[in-house]
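Reposting from the mailing list since nobody answered there.

I have sequence plus structure tokens for a pair of proteins and want to know whether others read the tokens the same way I do. The first protein:
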Amino acid sequence: MPIRVMLVDDHAVVRQGLRMFLGLDTDIEVVGEATNGAQALQLARQLQPDVILMDLLMPEMDGITAIEIVRREMPDTEVIALTSVLEDNMVVGAVRAGAIGYLLKDTEAHDLVNAIKAAANGQVQLSPAAAARLVRELRTDPSPEALTEREVEVLRLIGQGLANKEIAYTLHISEKTVKTHVSSILGKLQVTSRTHAALYAVRMGLVEQPGSVRNGG
């Protein structure tokens, strides 16, 4: 089954361009388009897409607000913020709202395609510039001792960009057990998203950078 993607941007030319090159990949199907956050929510509830590419600066309802509602109502739908804005408050706001990725609109087409496929598998997708800003914005350094040895292992693999199924395979445990560990890690680190957890893995020195932050995507 192809990855079902929804496009949210108030500029028709951007949506048209995205639809055109995403349509060249047989693993991806663009199932809908919206021009603002409010319209995106209505459409997402109907379509239940796998991944949403979400602009942040839009009329009626901004992208960050829409991301937060999508993630609360549709936890199986991943959201990548795709924007031309690289400001600390926007980057941090989008990730805190639950975006699994933050990419700039000058991202190469093949990197964006790879980011969509990775996001569909629950892998963090950040542009290098966004990752750097997020790491800088993390205000506290949680002690690794607060995590169990197994949780540290899971956190390291999250930071390397692995999805739950891949973590389960690597550690020879069930995917359900991985989900339990991830929930515990998020609670102990006092973060709400897998993306933030990956960045803490960087801050703790468990990995050099979020695993999916390579070549801009």
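The second protein, same order (residues first, tokens after):
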Amino acid sequence: MQQLQLAKVLKNQIFEGFVLVRASEQRTSSNGGKFLDMTVCDLSGDFNAKMWDGTVQPPAPGTVVKIRAMMQEYNNHPQLRVDKMRPAVEKDQVEMAMLVPCAPTPAEEMLAAINARIDAMQDEDLKKVTRLRLKECGPKLMYYPAATKLHHAERAGLLHHTSTMLQLAEAVCQVYPTLDGDLLAAGVILHDLCKTDEIRADESGVAADYTREGQLLGHIVMGVSALAKACDEAGVKGEKKLMLQHMLLAHHDLPEYGSPKPPMFPEAEVLHVIDLLDARMFEMNRALDGVNPGSFTERIWSLERRLYRRAHPPVRQENAEDGADGAPQDNGEE
């Protein structure tokens, strides 16, 4: 399904398509009439929208609606004047990736990969506690972001972050076979699950803010507490329970980033390192996608640096075209 992005709609042009409702309320104008005041968005950004029909109830934030509207201006800002609106229905087959940033892999596939790794665990205690915690998170996992603004702040971003970290963990364990692969995989799966309690987000995957618990405690403290209860319920005791708790407690490494203890055994250290690596690769790739080859990004405050996008990307073997003599074509890079 294709539709024109809101940012490309010209003044006085009619837009007809699907948008995500970020905020909406019924208000009263100066002449006493009722109207809808909304913030709607697609992947190109947020836009104010007005509907001068006082009989229409405001749609709930996080819902997708189909609108017919004219793009106008108010105080030098674009504004949609909506004359028709209806909720999206299943047969519309709306692609959420048109409306909000989404993980590149379907949530169902990522969750299946995580469950497959749990099934493959040799350690029955780790298998029980990770499966229990995953079940406690419920359907939120299918759409929850991993952050409000930074890495994996996208629909199903928490699953995206977890599934790529599991791939990293598998690769690291092949290089360092003394690592306990099941313990590391359990730490990866468990370490950010309380983001579903720390962040306030709706089914669109858009994070609105932090919850009260998220502000006062944070996902690390909440995660250690939830893990302790799950271990007790699953009958996981002693050193194994303590090591899992430490991995969650230490995965940010430093007190200024929320971890009161540094990683104190190899699996905890690797968890911290691959967590940081995955977060930074996501932020770097996202920033570099927005600049032309051979150019620098603006300063990325979370990374405290500017980034450079190479002018001549490497030739991938599967994409290289062979010349007449069977040798790869020269790509012009010296």
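Reply #1 (J.P.):
I read it the same way you do. DSSP finds nine helices and seven strands in the chain.
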